[in-house]
């Protein structure tokens, strides 16, 4: 709808107010899918800060409250949004999930799905750098495994940070099969760079 052009002329705080007024954070998921498809057709593209506000308003509450796998509508909306705005989505969503205490099994699975199916290579690198900023936990190992599964060429400084993190935190994972698989994957994928 042409009215969506207003999204490009709002400041981030105005956009937050508009999202609140339209109750986008609690709108039914089928509408969320339609709204995200409208966003893709919007010209010009949303600014980074506007896309970050929308990522927070549309998805953050839904993702953090997951206690079972996301619905196909939520996944379709996320995939759609991610196809154009994966960087702001990563910044908002991944940072919040990493700060959540507890296991967060569904959130972890969702991050793995985003890595495997949705994110652009530069966003995968952003996600990896965000994960490496926090202490590793058993919950994060599958996410790192998913990143390695993409077989992306990592910048040398990011690969060094990954290897250093794995080395430093090895004692904490002495009995972890997931950790052993992760180290094996790093050595296999990057054997020429890892001495």
From TrEMBL:
It holds the Pfam family FA_FANCE. It comes from the Eukaryota. One of its GO terms (biological process) is interstrand cross-link repair. Signal peptide: none annotated. Residues 1-194 form the Fanconi Anaemia group E protein C-terminal domain. GO terms for cellular component: Fanconi anaemia nuclear complex. PANTHER family: FANCONI ANEMIA GROUP E PROTEIN. This is FANCE protein. It comes from Machaerirhynchus nigripectus. The lineage of its organism: Eukaryota, Metazoa, Chordata, Craniata, Vertebrata.
């Amino acid at each position: 709808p042409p009215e969506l052009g207003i999204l490009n002329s709002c400041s981030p705080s105005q956009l937050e107010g508009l999202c609140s007024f339209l109750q986008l954070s609690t709108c039914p998921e089928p509408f969320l899918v339609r709204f995200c498809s409208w966003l893709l057709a919007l010209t010009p593209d949303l600014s980074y800060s506007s896309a970050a506000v929308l990522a927070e308003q549309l998805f953050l509450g839904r993702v953090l409250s997951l206690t079972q796998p996301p619905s196909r509508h939520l996944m379709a909306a996320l995939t759609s949004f991610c196809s154009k705005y994966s960087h702001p989505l990563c910044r908002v969503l991944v940072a919040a999930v990493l700060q959540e205490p507890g296991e967060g099994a569904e959130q972890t699975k969702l991050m793995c799905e985003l890595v495997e199916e949705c994110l652009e290579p530069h966003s995968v690198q952003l996600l990896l750098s965000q994960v490496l900023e926090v202490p590793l936990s058993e919950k994060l190992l599958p996410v790192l495994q998913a990143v390695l599964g993409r077989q992306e060429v990592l910048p040398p400084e990011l690969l060094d940070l990954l290897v250093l993190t794995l080395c430093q935190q090895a004692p904490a994972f002495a009995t972890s099969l997931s950790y052993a698989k992760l180290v094996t994957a790093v050595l296999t994928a990057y054997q020429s760079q890892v001495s």
